[in-house]
Amino acid sequence: MTPGALESTEHRGFYDRLRRRMRRSLLEERGLAPGTVDALLLAPDLFVLLVRLSLDARVPAADRALIGSALLYFVAPFDLVPEALLGAGGFIDDVVLAATLLTHALGPDLEQVAAEHWSGREALRKTLARLMASTTSLLGPGRSRLLQDWLQREREAPQAAPSDSEISSA
Question: CA quadruple 103, 109, 110, 111: dihedral positive or negative?
Answer without folding.
Answer: positive
